[in-house]
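Re: the 681-residue chain
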Amino acid sequence: MNSIKKVLLLIISLVPITLYAVKEPVPYPAGKAMPGGEPPDKKPLSDILTYGGFDEYSQPKWMDSFVQKGVIPPVKDRLPKEPQVFLTKGMRHGCGNYGGHFRYFSASPTAGHNLYAGVRNGWWGITYVYLEALVKSGTIPRRSDEAIPMPNLAKSWQWSADGYELTMKLIEGAKWSDGDPFDSEDVMFTWEDNILDPNVNSWKDRKAWQLDGKDINLVALDKYTIKFTFPKKKPVAFLFNMDYLDFSIAPSHWLKPFHPRYNSNSDYDAYKNAMPPNDLPVPSMGPWVMVVYKTDELLVARRNPYYWKVDQCGQQLPYLNEFSWVKGNQGTGRTLGALADKFDQSNVENPSVFIETVKRSRDKNSHFIVEWGPELLSFPLILNLSSTHGVKNTRDKEIRKLFRNFKFRRALSHALNRKAIAQSVVKGPFLRPFAGGLTPGSLYFDEDSVVFYDYDPPSSKQLLDELGLKDTNGNGVREWTSGPMKGKELVFELMTSTGATATQHVADTVLFLLSDVGIKVNPRPVPDSSVKTDSGEFEMWIDRSGQEYAVPYAKYTDLAALQVNTPEWHKKGSKGRELMPFEKKLVSIVKEFSMEPDFNKRKLLMYKYNNIYTRNLYLIGTVVGRYGQIAHKRLKNWVAGTPVFMYQWAPNSAQPDQMWVEKGEQKPEILPNTIPIYTNK
């Protein structure tokens, strides 16, 4: 018997002993509703808008004098035969009255207005007042019938029987703000001379309009009919490519004289700068036209006399005569200004102002409401998963090997006390644990798809031990115990954004939690993370996640390695890209997803996607919360439950061309009784 015991003891001594059983994934907990706000007022498209004509139309009384003087034609002659009509059923407060202006904020300088060539004009909703596209997706949350963009300059479309062709009918008789007719020439100029021209820095170039490397073709059948031809059957997702930024329609009559294709004396620099910041007005198809820019001080836009949308009462839109932006130093200034009644709207996206916003909104005398949208605000911990891109030395190579090891990513996830991170960013119920992948506010999110490796430091330490990462000298920092890095400490650089302070707050807590399991982290705030991601020269990164996880159908190319520059943490680089097995599965799922027209089938595909994503910790989630939105109480027809950032920036989602203000509550206009005058025509 004693000999048997000795043999057993010998066998046991030869078997590695697991000191701790690694914690299994736990069910992802359901979120709780935030007080304040309303769910989106969902209606079928037939209750929201249509296209049709009226016997008579009206305009602001002060515009009558411009008609009488012959400066502009009568309102009926400025409108299309069948303008787009906003229906009373789809407007929260119905037909409104004219007057007043929308006060807004911009933290970015205006470089110019040729957005079609990639020139940024300050963001913060500026582009929404003068740009229009074939379709509009910002209002999708309002639809109860179908989660696809709404008609806009393209009033209708039809797929061919085989699904390879999409024919679109454009609105007939609409005009630019200078009176020049809009037609398919503008669409084809945008397509051929901006999107497809490799010398023009358009928002989406030719590669974005390809399927498996094959071109998508567009032709004009007549002045008001265009036809797309696709290399695959019915890729409905490309409707999102026809929206704002990606396919904002350019004024061909204005820009052709600057384009080298039509002017041999011009060049692409001249074309890019064809709409300088102070040379106003420029032609607009939007509700307002920019008329004055005072550098780094003020931008003023006035109503477009030729705007092609009306309400059901026959009133030409917009109701508000003016839209203005005061220049400031940073984005938080917009929220603070809205709280101080200097601005009429703000996205509440910086957790540092959450508590103050809620506190002031509860005051009975508060001038604003605050609504909390779906859970779309997340802060993932991102690891550089490229095996070659940005690798310069042995250390880089070994770090990437470690990052690409699932066991290491799981160790990081178990090291994160997400509840502590949430409270470190902002006290209260605003943020909660996040597993990564699709945000809970996404239309495609399903709690059951989530694999959640919750906080458990012993599990983290056990996994790190199994990887041969141990603190051999007792200084609290683990070292590699084998390989080229043997004896070197486990130290990483953690990148954050100087423009998003919450990323730095998350990072401060993350580095503390990782130190608890023996990983040293050095924070590195940078003003522009894209510089590092483009070169691949980063290690760890705390980011504010993008729209791809809220609106995967619109941003599907960002969901997996479908393009050389996606995802940001595993770009292709000059030396190619070695996809991990689960990444290949994600690519396959996303490709199928992008071609699937049925919403319910797309949901099932996203279930698979999110399950694989979270199971493999493609990104390591930290915390998730909600964007808020401040709106001045005087604004009528504010769209209830507008989800900030879910589709586009709030001004477009909230439809400011529908907003109106009671006469007694209107703020003084900066340039009253003014219309855009084009002296250079």
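Confidence is low (pLDDT under 50) at residues 1-18.
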